[in-house]
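Mods, move this if it's the wrong board.
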Amino acid sequence: MFNPLPYQEINALYSADNILESHVRAAISEAKLKNDEAKGCINKLLQEASEEEINHGWVEHASRAAREAADLARIHAVLLTAIHIEGAVNAFGVYVTGEDFFKSHIERCSLESKLALTIALLGKGCIQKKHPAFLAFRDLFERRNQIAHRKTKEWHPDSSDHIRVAKSNSDLDACSKAMDTFRELLLEVDQNAAFMAGVHKEEETL
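Not the wrong board. Structure tokens:
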């Protein structure tokens, strides 16, 4: 027998321990803004710089502050998105199965397995490995791992700042994709459980 936690108890636990969806969305929006600012700065510098200045890294140096602000905002958004989704999947599992069952049988599984098992135990069918949410999770967590295990590379003139801006856009798109597909999946499965995992209908987040 499953022993789900009472609504009030798990809601209190969630509020104390997990990151709300609205906070993650705000971090993604802030990162996109910082990225646009960095892109504008770089484009302006490229228009004003000579070929020699570009080849000697002047644009890289002059745009450093804007790029670092964008990079930090991107890292924050990616990490916060990953933390939110992982915590929300755990909250969803505890809500459906109860804390004892979840810790004994599900907690040590992969993120995708946790979600698939919880949905199956809820009686909502089997989620395939190629489900859009799972594909988005893999993409997001691969990017999270790249941030957590960064490698130093030498600077070269042909590795322009535009590549970093493009990378930032790609990371932020992955954050939004993971959030959107996760939201759609949970709301489709069970709106009460989705609420317990910090995911609400659009009108409730305004």
